[in-house]
Amino acid sequence: MNTRILKPSDSAYGYPLLIKRLLTSTQRVEERNQIVSGRQRFSYRQLNERICRLANALRAQGIGPGDTVAVLDWDSHRYLECFFAIPMIGAVLHTVNIRLSPQQILYTMNHAQDDLVLVHDDFLPIIDGIKGQLETVKGYVRLTDVDTPPEAPFATAGEYEALLAEAAVSYDFPDFDENSVATAFYTTGTTGNPKGVYFSHRQLVLHTLNLVNTLLTRNAGDPLLDHDGVYMPITPMFHVHAWGIPYAATMMGIQQIYPGRYEPNRLARLIREEGVTFSHCVPTILQMVLQSAEAASTDFKNWKVIIGGSALTPGLVEQAMTRGVDIFSAYGMSETCPLLAITRITREQRGQPMAEQIAWRVKAGIPSDLVDIQIWDSNGTPLPHDGKSAGEVVVRAPWLTQSYLFEPDKGAELWAKGWLHTGDVASIHPDGCIEIKDRIKDVIKTGGEWISSLELERLISTHPGVHAVTVIGIPDEQWGERPCALVISRTAECSAQSIVDHLQQYVAGGAINKWAIPKEVRIVTEIPTTSVGKIDKKRIRAQLT
Questions:
Q1: How many Å apart are CA 14 and CA 196, to the nearest integer?
Q2: Where in the sequence is the domain holding 353, given as residue range(s)?
Q3: For 21-34, what is each residue's pLDDT tens digit?
Q4: Which of 258, 261, 235, 246 shows the shortest CA–CA distance to 74?
Q5: Which of 440, 457, 474 is the last residue of a domain?
Q6: In total, how many domains does the chain have?
Q7: CATH of the domain at 115
């Protein structure tokens, strides 16, 4: 095939896709909306000034292109400023998972080769305990939320706000290669050390542009988020850049609320007092907010929520919709930046009864723009999108991580045959809607049959007495594995036998076979979760087997 390639003029400007471009429109026009974080309230003009001040403060600490800056903080205005200033000077932002163990945090900071650490008061003891083993760190900056913080246990270069106050208010952010690494963070797997995921400026800009379009268009006649909305993340900013939505919200010039440490009553109060219209979180966080004491006096009718990270169950959808929450599913993973698909609700679907809407809202949604998704069998053969065939989800998009940081062999495994392998089993319907069946590692193999733990969780969640549920496979001498369900009950009438009786109707109706009835149902008071709030099936399996 012959293609025509025209050489651009030597004088034409190449316009690299850099994170600084996301600030262009708000620098010019945004005057009304604010950034709200604790006692801090400031305009977008002030945000831009603070980003410049932070850039100057970082340069004063010797940070420049190619260096790595680690941040340990709650969701705050400081974190938002770091999202921009650090990569905009050519450095790499390492968002440290504060919920990992101290030894895992030590591993990630040494592996990322951090040069400077910005650390909140609450995490000073962690850093104090490992700082003697940090191999590349040259200095520390303190982050605090109080006027007179106690003395730090080790020397720092100063306190964040004081350093910004001393820094110049302007900074000429340079152009450089758009493929330069902008951010890095670590994702935990089933075995071994956490793996470093990284993204370039180009990838983050393209992901942001896609997010803006998605937020504006995916909910018929009623955008998920627009310039008049109020945004509050309830996904940690250390986790995939809070799903990248702070970048999109900043580009759009939207009112943003940063809640600090997550506390359900405080989150519900902020939703009520600040008029929050849009958030995103994992299912466990939404449940805690809806059941908090403050929720009783909070009107959720203007609140739209995207759920990701774990499967959205019909029971939670019904609970949320009954309280007025407009709830959606989204699909992605750490390695995909993360957006791959999201629920699309049409005007016709919005007029359907709740039961029919629930069936749409629990699915993973329609692929986002520029996302190419297939399902493959174990031989790598693409399967039809008929809503019945199930295989591993593989994907291509312009914002997917290209490898794992300093681990090319693991990156090659992730990208086998030129497609990123998600490890998820799904069907794709003729209309493009993705229905996740399970994680490959969570499928229960019993007597030669494969049982979806997610499907069992979905069915159990429809029991009126179930508050939360998870299902895993446990070893069985005769069948290899059998399902085991952990259930948090909503009512005293919710018993193990009532769960079994509830599932019998689905056996009679042919939805599941009799071997899918759990061998054991345990009524528990809590279900273990991971550092980002997902149900931790790895830990549950270790406890039960």
A1: 30
A2: 262-440
A3: 999 877 766 778 99
A4: 261
A5: 440
A6: 3
A7: 3.40.50.12780
The amino acid occupying position 473 is G
pTM: 0.87
Q: What are the DSSP calls for 106-174, one per residue?
A: HHHHHHHT--EEEEEGGGHHHHHHHGGG-SS--EEEEE-SSSSPPPPSS--S-BHHHHHHHS-S---PP
Q: At what angle do helices 453-461 and 496-508 cross, to 10 degrees?
A: 110
The reply to whether 514 falls in a domain is yes
User: Looking at residue 365, what DSSP letter applies?
Assistant: B
Choose the final residue of a domain: 392, 414, 440.
Answer: 440
Q: Does 428 reside within a domain?
A: yes
Q: Using one digit for the tens of pLDDT, what is the confidence trace for 401-456?
A: 999 999 999 999 999 999 999 999 999 999 999 999 888 888 887 766 678 888 88
Distance CA 274, CA 34 (A): 11
pLDDT of 346 > 60? The answer is yes
Could you tell me if residue 314 is inside a domain?
A: yes
Question: Residue 13 domain-assigned?
Answer: no
Contact 368, 341 (CB under 8 A): yes
Q: Which residues contact 204 (CB under 8 A, 6 or more apart)?
A: 19, 87, 182, 183, 241, 244, 247, 337, 399
Q: Both 388 and 500 in a single domain? A: no
3-state DSSP assignment of residue 511: coil
- Residues annotated as part of the active site: 187, 335, 445, 450
pLDDT score for 448: 61
